Amino acid sequence: MIVKEINDQLEIIPNYLTKQNIAFKKLMHQALSSITKTTTEKLNSNTNKLRKIAILIYKIMVIQTYQYLWKTYFKSGTGQFIIPSETKQKLSYSATLSIWPKEIKTIVLSNKKDKTNENEICLKFTNGQLNALQHQLKQYQQELNI
Predict the structure, then answer these.
(1) Which of 51, 52, 81, 116 lies at a CB distance of 3.0 to 4.6 Å from 75, suitable for a disulfide?
(2) Neighbour-count burial of 58, counting CB atoms closer than 10 A to its CB (0-12 exposed, 13-18 middle, 19+ buried)
(3) Which pLDDT does position 139 carry in this prediction?
(4) Over 90: is that where the pLDDT of 39 sits?
(5) Buried/exposed 110-144: b ≥16 CB within 10 Å, e otherwise
(6) Cα(104)–Cα(70) distance, integer angstroms
(7) First-residue to last-residue Cα distance in the chain
(8) How many contiguous H segments (helices) and E segments (strands) does the chain have?
(9) DSSP notation for 16-75
(10) 83 or 57, which is more confident
(11) Radius of gyration over alpha carbons of the chain, in Å?
(12) pTM for the full model?
């Protein structure tokens, strides 16, 4: 469910990377013209290749941002959000307190009738999202390498 929403968001190419963006087009033409002397047809082909690379880099950055969010959810839910060695003052509460964000609880528990293993259900869901994001990130990185 969440991964589908992220995929839908990734399909929307930002305006600054579209073919209609004149500034991007000029920048690509300048960069390519300074590198090699080519025909207009080859210049357009190379511009499209560079645009695809820029879009892949954009998608990788979006996925990495979502990974950071879901890692933060995971740390919060597993009590790893606050590391005592990183704080300069003594904590007046347990640093291993496990708190799942409201968004996660709402999503997970809306589908489950049994709330006895709430922590385990949230943990599995968060791990699933992290794994899906990692898989998607690897796909985009492989595509970029090619």
Answers:
(1) 81
(2) middle
(3) 96
(4) no
(5) eeeeeeeeeeebbbebbeebbebbeebbeebeeee
(6) 10
(7) 29
(8) 5, 0
(9) GGSTT-HHHHHHHHHHHHHH----HHHHHHHHHHHHHHHHHHHHHHHHHHHHHHHHHHHH
(10) 57
(11) 22
(12) 0.77
